[in-house]
Amino acid sequence: MSESFRRTFSYPRCRVFSGLLLAIAASLSSSAPRNASAAHAVAQFGEPKYSAGFHHFDYVNPDAPKGGTLNLSVVSLNSSFDKFNPFSLKGRVGPGLLELAFETLTVYSLDEVNTQYGLLADDIHVEPDLGAVTFHIDARARFSNGDPVTAKDVKYSFDTLTSRSASPRFRAYFSELKQAVVLDEQTVRFVFARKGRDLPFVAGSLPVFSPKWGLQPSGEKTPFDQLRLEAPIASGPYVIEKAASGLSLTYARNPNYWGKDVPARRGAFNFDRVVYKLYKDMDTQVAALRAGEFDFFAETRMRYWCCQYIGKRFDNGDLIKTILPHRNMSAMNGYIFNMRRERFKDARVRQALNYAFDWEWVNQKILADEFDRQDSYFANSPLKATGLPSEAELKLLEPYRAELPPDVFGPMFVQPNTRPPSSLRENLIKALDLFAQAGWRVENGVLRNAKGEAFIIEIAGSRTNLLLEAFYANLTKLGITLVKRPADPVGDRARLRKFDYDFASIAFREARDPGAELWRNFNGADADTPGSENLVGVKSHVVDELIKKLLDASSKEEQTTVAHALDRVLVHNHYVLPWRHLTHHYVMYAKHLRRPEILPLHYGAYEWVLGAWWDDRAVNGAAAANLATPR
Question: What are phi and psi of 379, to 5 degrees?
Fold first, then answer.
């Protein structure tokens, strides 16, 4: 599925992404007439790497043996799952459903920035004006019940996911697809609400399922939003084999899977079974890995990575610990202050708060010094702005000079640090100077404005958080008054949706290339709309215009220039106090797992394991005798 789609809708704590799940199949080069031609693949800019009739992706082994079982783990804070419908609002969905049971019209390649190839669709036609896209459905495509996949099924899926029967998140994701029109038995056309190079990718990411899902023997049909434990009727390579409440969910390969010879599927999904085992907390999960209860784990908690993964199974080679590089663009993450509050509206105030955050201490003491500081909205990618603006960037920014901080036109902002010769003391002095420029001064140990009002930040404070406690201590040194209230995860989420907060953590949606998610994060029209994704409260004509230009970019060069300009504007306005990102996957896996020699470039760790690894025991036919039993 599209990167942002998967990361938004995958099962919580599982982060298992269906690596070869979707994409579009039409060429979207910078030449409009060529964009309009029907094709097997679509590249946002330039030409697809793999030509029509390609056999397989370079990062898979097309001869990988089929067999064995892949055991994975999930921390289930709610103890279990209670539904197999990943698209409805209520309930807790079982892990792996989107990745294994469902398919989409197109699938990303993992060694290109933004190119997608046909899966359910074998031919795509993008309109010359980028106002619509037409998909032809592969005549071989079949649902798990044996029915052919038709254009009517695609329209049914679209209409369902954009109706009130589905979670609002899906309606929002597909909101810029105006309608789906059935042209014939195998052909469906999507009309866009706006013209954009990103929208064929959104259309291609539509999960397709059968209208018969939920049909009872009596002929009555269960309403879509009431589907719970009815097995999905979809076209993916796996079907649900066994569900053990609170313990595990087992998928078995569909022996009649239709897509095994589709180029985008060769060498993929090589395990006979995939088992998700449920654990009540992270410590139990770590102990289970050391005991050999599951086969693969990707770690992002560096304090665990450095110190927890030791013992006999690591010493004797039964479990292998390694680091794999990637080129995934890291979306902005960190802490936000509600700009709807008067005291947070001044960019100098937000910058001052950043100087109170001692990133080096946090990274060394809590994160095992493995993270890089997030310093861009497009970190770990060529879209990240560095140094001085280019002539092309200045040409873009100059018309908005009066609306922008002067620093935007100088060197890119360097995040505060406490590495010598810098120090925390020096940074706190800079913070006080910035507060003074914004009209806030310390009086008798309390930071106050000209009206005598104290600078107050309300925080959730019933749980210990070493990272935040260090930050809070520095804020107190600046004279800021901290008001603690009991932490309430459910209530806090509701308050965030209503914009009733002072301070919150945030992680923007990740994407291979920036697109409509930036508009949802920052467009000023949504700043005062409760429930919108503009959580910070940004109202900037310049930001709106630059995002529109980014979406309308007609070449990679133009996209890069606009992204650099936008990055400078966002960073120099200090909308987010940045946190961190990783440039590698930190993984552990059982010795019987094998992977292709060639690594992909843009991939999730679980995505690649599901999409390309195999069980070496299957080579000698021994895997069937060694299938793991769900616990």
Answer: -60, 150
Helices 424-437, 347-355: inter-axial angle, 10-degree rounding: 170
Is 300 buried (19+), middle (13-18) or exposed (0-12) by CB count in 10 A? middle
Tell me if the bond preceding 421 is cis, omega within 30° of 0. yes
pLDDT at 463: 52
333-581 matches 3-55+63-214+232-323+585-626 in CATH topology = no
Q: Which of 306-315, 338-347, 511-520 has the highest mean pLDDT?
A: 338-347
Band (pLDDT 50/70/90 cuts) for residue 358 is: very high
Q: CATH number of the domain at 333-581, please?
A: 3.10.105.10
Domain parsing of the chain, residue ranges: 3-55+63-214+232-323+585-626, 333-581
Tokens of 403: 């609306």
Q: What Rg value do the Cα atoms of the chain yield, rounded?
A: 25
What pLDDT sits at residue 461?
60
CATH number for the domain whose boundaries are 3-55+63-214+232-323+585-626: 3.40.190.10
For the chain, the residue count is 631
Chain centroid offset of residue 189 CA:
27
Dump pLDDT digits (tens) for 255-279. 999 999 999 999 999 999 999 999 9
